[in-house]
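Batch manifest, entry 17 of 40.
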Amino acid sequence: MNKRINIEEIEPAGYKSMFALEQYIATTKILKTHKELIKTRASQINGCAFCIDMHTKDARKHGETEQRIYLLNAWRETDFFTEEERVVLALTEEITLISQGGVSDETYQKAKAIFDDQYIAQLIMVVVAINGWNRISIATQKQPALDK
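Output type: structure tokens
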């Protein structure tokens, strides 16, 4: 791939703003499992190799299993994800694919039945953040480092 701009170097203030969003997310009560499921699933949908690599590694560090990571893109077809996680994944997909109908009333009502308003708002912010990072990484062709 051709080398593209490095936004962090060229527009450090913009990049710093994205990190400010990440710092906010770090202060939320969102479970690490939920964060990494969101970040990995959105990155899969968006096709962001850099972010998929980063967040599957982070998920494993936080105790996620290889099997669940491998099956994440087919989460509806397994019983490996809890009801909470299924709602988180549905929200992630519907927000990431916002132009395909947005967040359905069904998904939103399921989220309301499980989570309080603050947690839902925080989940939305995590999805928004990773979608931003995916777009930066894809647009600049940021590459994961090869594990040795």
